[in-house]
Here is the input.
Amino acid sequence: MKRVFQFIFILLTFSGCEKTTNWALKSQTSKLIVVDGIVTGETKIQSLTLSFPVSELNTKPLPVTGAVLQISDEDSVFRMTEQPAGSGIYYSTTPFSAREGKNYSLLIFYGNQIISAKSIMEPALFFNFLIYSKNEDTGLYHISWVASSFSTSAPAMWEVLLDWSKVQGYQQTDSTKCKARMLFYTLSTLDVSEIFAPSIESVSFPSGTKITEKRYSLTPEYAEFIREVLLETQWQGSLFNTTNANVPTNLSSGGDGFFAVCGVSSIYQTVQ
Here is the structure.
């Protein structure tokens, strides 16, 4: 009984030492610009999206409209224009491809702000095509393997595009319901949150589906950015959540997100 009273006394003592503190939290100004987009080694019209950050969950970000953008290397300057106006999506005025060994710079002019970032391109690498399996009960297929989730030397992002909108029996269906895009990652770290991450929805698709698999080579800095984003989003909700923290960026003051340049290799196949 004496020990019980001692425990209650200690508990009351610690609770009596509690003190309410009102932190003077600084709200982020709306002028912070979030950059989303990848410049690749593919010869095409490159694009970047600019938006303002959101302060509430599930809020659609407002586009940054009317900015002036340019991407440059040691030899050329590529200007970007917003299309359509008010969308916050900026496209290069001419097609171009990033090249290995070049240093790329991004400049954003918005009002009285000048935001910059630099990046290089890791070379594109060949890879083994993904593996898909058939569910004998439904006759549909699903992705069973894409790539190893861990590599100390070659971090990568894998983009898998599925399209069965032209398959017989699906041609009259809304085409947006006959397409899917999935992302997978090979990173140089292996986190507990990743191992015990919540399960994700499996996509089923019929024979005749066209599969496009792309491998994006990542710089170590971009791989770390992706890892931190996954820790804050897709890998949350398990028994081993991590403490929330600021996601790294390679943009100068006033910018957030990441300006990435990636080598890309692709494989195309039709499900038989």
Remarks:
- The first helix runs from residue 2 to 16.
- The helical segments are 2-16, 192-195, 220-232.
